Amino acid sequence: MQEKNKKINRRDFLKRTAGAVGLVALASTPFAVFNRVKGAPDNPLATEGKPDNNASAKSKVRAWGMVIDLRKCDGCVTIGISPACTQTCINGHFAPKGQEWIQVYKAELPGGGSSFMPVPCFQCENAPCVNVCPVAATYHNEDGVVLVDHKRCIGCRFCMSACPYHRRFFNWGTVELPPEAAFAEYSPLYPVPAIKGTVIKCMFCAHFLHDGKLPFCVAGCPMKAIYMCDFNEDVASNGVEVVILSRFLRENNAYRYKEDLGTQPRVWYIPGHGEQFGRHANDTRELKPVNVPWGGATPDQRLGLWPWDKPDTWTWEANPK
Amino acid sequence: MRAAAESYTRRLERVSLAPLWNTSTRYRLFVFFLLAIVAWGVYAYVVQLRYGLAMTGMNDQVNWGFYIFNFVFWIGVSHVGALISAILRLTNAGWRTPLTRLGELITISALLIGAAMIIVDMGRPDRLLNLLFYGRFQSPLIWDVIGVATYLTGSLIYLYLPTIPDFAMIRDRLRRTTSTIKLKLYTFLAVGWRGTPEQKARLDKGVKIMSVMIIPIAVSVHTVVAFVFAMTLRPGWDSTVLAPNFVIGALFSGMSALMVVMGAFRKFCHLEEYITPKHFKNISYLAIVLLFAYFYFVFVEYSTVMFKFRLEEKELFTLLLVGQSAPWFWLFFTCAFVLPSVLLLWQREPTIPRLVIAGILVNIGMWVKRFVIVVPSMEVPLMPTDFHFATYMPSWVEISIVAAGLAGFILLLTLSAKIMPVMPFVEMVEEAEEKHAEGKEEKHVQEQHPVRRRQGV
Fold first, then answer.
1. 257-316 of A, contacting B, C-beta below 8 A
2. What is the pLDDT of residues B344-370, one digit of tens each?
3. pLDDT digits over A296-317, tens only?
4. Domain total of chain A
5. Angle, CA of B222, B224 and B225, to the nearest 5°
6. B-proximal residues of A, 79-118, CB under 8 Å
7. What residues of A are in contact with residue B390 (Cβ under 8 Å)?
8. What's the CATH code of the domain at A121?
9. Domains (ranges, CATH) in chain B?
10. Is B378 in Cβ contact with A161 (below 8 Å)?
11. Phi, psi of B397 (to 5 degrees)
């Protein structure tokens, strides 16, 4: 390199500019990278559920949760209807066919016999779905509910793969909904009508909660087995009785499903098999399938396995009952 | 002696530049055939866009299928570029010269197809840019986006840099003709290359920097691809060893893909003199090492899980070893391990068909292995449903798009042979001249001739 009388030549200029830009980028990294998206303050939709008036009870930050008392849950077999929680949820949300946001599973009991277990989204505190979302379309709102912004979701379904409870569903195709669904105003708290190509799930009916209303499944449960609770206020209610949450959990051996995964679900179970309504553990009556009056975004809408197939010649069932 | 060297150079020029000047009817037909498959795939994608992913065989439990495991497969194939071009260049393995460009071309084509597979898998491809606007660095998928984009950019640079002298050479040849568009294109691509010592030194420096940089990038790419699975709580995916397993598997399948592509180009571009059985043998030695390394990783992964046999893992392995996915698992085991190890180790003539067949088998095996990784893990139910397994069958849309991906890969390779010599022509000429200058010409010629005799008669 020849002497250039301390003049900056082009090469040096480029080098120094690149160095300066690199330094600035490096210095600003902690702010950009480690700014954890929680409650998503940069997400305008996150605060949409807030009521307009500033009444203190309504604007309080909550920690919503659920307690499901399996001693009271008989899967609605003793009254001979399809699970009312699922049915009410579907009716209230116009949930596309094939999606059961709260789904009643049949679980085996130690020592034989079976129990029914309604499973909504667990709204995990360490939610695997929130952790993997590439665009922060799924996030915790300030009340701890895991929501999905369907106008941002890119449909990669990573959250579905990450969820260890199968609690997420995909709108595979165009959803066929009844005309009244068109009047609903979309928000992440009440995702109606469902948007094609996005992931959808239970969101604890978060649009009801601040108004003091109970979610569809809690209100719809004829056995009053589901309690909505607020961990901040330490109170739970199934719409009929109000209990002290911590005592209720402690005295009834409450547990969380797959506690060992460390996802910290906000849904607690109290073990049982519907005995409070006379369901014996060895009762062989099965769950009745839910009734979905409209079509869905589900695979049974597919045109067929092969190009020349007619619709509905090839059917598929997610969880045959 | 001098005459021999020059005739070698002239022959090299005639053979390696032939595809650039002449287009045969067979070539046109082949391209047309590939284009037809790609067009059918595009039609299938249009159908999928119209009706949504409901047109695929995926469902709420098996929510990833054909597209995702083909993405993993293509990213795996793309690893050959890093190994052949970078590692062998750094270790000064002289024999790799005719293969470097093929390796890089495979890398770039495979990466493009892999990236396309991911976009095809998206439910909302119209929101692709959300990845830029709202991307969160905590998500493994964003690591993938960054990794694949970086690897693609790096590979393009790494393909382009050593090709500059070739572009300049083509530019100089084109000066004799009147094709102005072509001349302009190659003048642009050659960026004023004159072959001066300073230019050569700079280019050499650039290539060396790239060949060092491309290795960590390549390793990181398949690591983050594995992280997409390993960061979840699914049986079979929730494993520490998954990332190194993916990297070794990727090198293994990339190496085998190279053997197949080498065989094809050797036959159709008449490169018998330059891509010799010796090259195939050297590549096969690497493949043998990678085969056993990969077997070791698979063994480690499966044995640590199978010893503990946690409930969901137990269901998964029952499904894999004896259940409904068993045919696929054992097909993978046979095609990727058993048959290739025989074909690679049992050194019998004819070398080239033996190794090409081994390469094809390994690629089938590794493709099936990607299926075995992705789909059965998702079929295992995670909720108490008396362990009712979900099932997955790809639909015609998925099969068409994946077939179009394979056709597109071959098409990219075929078309790039029209744009640049598939072997680094100038570099090979220089090497031949160096050898001549060092008086190794005799040896060189002797090395070439037995092959020609075997092939030629």
1. 261, 263, 297-299, 301-303, 305-307, 316
2. 888 887 888 999 999 999 999 999 999
3. 665 544 555 566 665 544 444 4
4. 1
5. 60
6. 98-99, 103, 105-108, 117
7. 318-319
8. 3.30.70.20
9. 2-456 (1.20.1630.10)
10. yes
11. -65, -45
